[in-house]
Amino acid sequence: MLGVIGTGYLGATHAACMAELGFDVVGVDTDESKVRSLSQGELPFYEPDLPELLAKNVAAGRLRFTTDFNELANADMHFICVGTPQQPGKNAADLSYVKASVAAVAAIAKPGSLLVGKSTVPVGTADALSASLPSHLELAWNPEFLREGFAVEDTLRPNRLVVGVQSDRAENLLKEVYQSLIKDGVPWISADLRTAELVKVAANSFLATKISFINAMAEICDASGGDVTVLAKAIGYDPRIGNRFLQAGIGFGGGCLPKDIRAFMARADELGATQALEFLREIDSINLRARKRVIELVRRDLSEALKSKRIAVLGAAFKPDSDDVRDSPALDIAVQIQAAGADVVVHDPKAIEPARKRFPALNFASSIDEVLKDAEIVLHLTEWKIYREIDPVKAKSLVSKAIIIDGRNALDRNKWIDAGWQFRALGVSDKEA
Ligand code: UGA
User: Fold this and answer.
1) What digits encode the pLDDT tens for the residues 24-49?
2) Residue nearest to atom 18 of ligand 1 (CA)
3) 272 CB contacts (<8 Å, ≥6 apart)?
4) What is the pLDDT of residue 431?
5) Helix axis angle, 9-20 to 50-59, nearest 10°
6) Which residues form the catalytic set?
7) Sign of the C-alpha dihedral computed for residues 410, 415, 419 and 424 taken in this order
8) Going by CA atoms, what residue is nearest to atom 36 of ligand 1?
9) 275-285 burial, b for 16+ CB within 10 Å, e for fewer?
10) C-beta separation of 382 from 365 below 8 A
11) From the CB of 318, is ligand 1 less than 6 Å away?
12) Which residues lie below 8 Å from residue 95, measured CB to CB, with a gap of 6+?
């Protein structure tokens, strides 16, 4: 039997996927409403393919959810999947949920069972937690690399499995759990606890760097008259660079990349290695600057006068195929523009409710037609497929002024220009019809 502690994006996916592999799984969360909905086979957030997997495995009796840690007493392995958000006002991660979960599991776990951390934590956390455990329990770290929107795919067919272990026994137990994935050829990397923790934050730092690199190039293109989309395509053909994660625009958000690079910097400070990660400060600044640059474009088009101007925002989620609005660049821009006095209306196919919860003062539209109606400027901020399918001719008949800013460089520029729109994008000089 496997225990999964924390049933958010990571834990719910891990629990359902482990059940799909044939294990008997119990998921524990302190949030009663989440547990109630998961127990009925209903996913309390949006993630493609996961609802089917959840419902199927709950119905098969291999997967259940509870708020009671005592139900983990018979588990052979306990996966810790709780969040490690940024501490308010600080760069460092809040480890209180991880610490509380490990303590709660330690109190009931049967001797010989293995605790396996999956949460993203600062290097050294696992060592410290390990020292707090009774001698009959052992801790391993198995970082998770899943992307929201592809969570099931990334869990059942990951591009690697990384485990930080303190004994051959722990490694063998983990190999047993992931046996079918290993058989399918997924690379297995065994490391010490510290390296395993570092792999995760290093990977996310690299991804963040790649995005901010191309956004820095977008700034240079804006200053010099180049086109960042062509530039990205051209450099991406070099296999050492690769063309993925080079989409210039309003930058990265979500519950992972922003807080992970900040927590990594905070940890480097504590380790006396501040300089080694100084560049991440710049990566963070470039990222936040991209949001400001969109707002400057809006101001330029509206001659600085935002007050009462009707602005349509397409997208609230931090990326498409997710309803996650944590540190969403799209919502941040919407909120900043509204704070400047504009009449902002936001549309998103999945994230309106989470967005409304976070920012109740924003206005939301339930259809694309509704959001576009009478808009004086349209901002495309999350690249959902349905926005690429908008007919620019029809859209022009709804708005008051046909100006669009493509904050994700994802729309078919020529199509919009041909329909008579003024088309703006980051890193691409303006072209008129
Ligand atoms: C990220 C990593 O990609 C996962 O490997 C990792 O497991 C996860 O964090 C985590 O730490 O749990 P995720 O946050 O789901 O996954 O989203 P990404 O696909 O990485 O996108 C992050 C942000 O970067 C989004 O806001 C996206 O719009 C933006 N982005 C991505 C760009 O602006 N340009 C790109 O070219 C790619």
Assistant:
1) 999 999 999 999 999 999 999 999 99
2) 147
3) none
4) 56
5) 50
6) 256
7) positive
8) 245
9) eebeebeebbe
10) no
11) yes
12) 84, 121, 122, 125
Q: Which residue has the tokens 């990334």?
A: 154
| Coil, helix or strand at residue 397 | helix
- Do residues 200 and 143 make contact, with C-beta atoms less than 8 angstroms apart? yes
What strands lie across the sheet with 377-380, from one edge to the other?
A: 363-364, 343-347, 310-314, 377-380, 403-406, 422-425, 428-431
Tell me, using a 6 A CB cutoff, whether residue 249 lines ligand 1.
yes
Would you say the C-alpha torsion 430, 246, 345, 342 has a positive or negative sign? Answer: negative
SS3 109: coil
Closest Cα to atom 13 of ligand 1: 147
For residue 304, pLDDT over 80 is answered with: no
User: Ligand 1 pocket, 327 CB below 6 A?
Assistant: no
What are the tens digits of pLDDT across the range 133-170?
Answer: 999 999 999 999 999 999 999 999 999 999 999 999 99
Q: For residue 136, report the distance from its CA to the centre of ligand 1, in Å.
A: 38
Quick check: pTM over 0.85?
Answer: yes
Residue with tokens 């934050």: 201
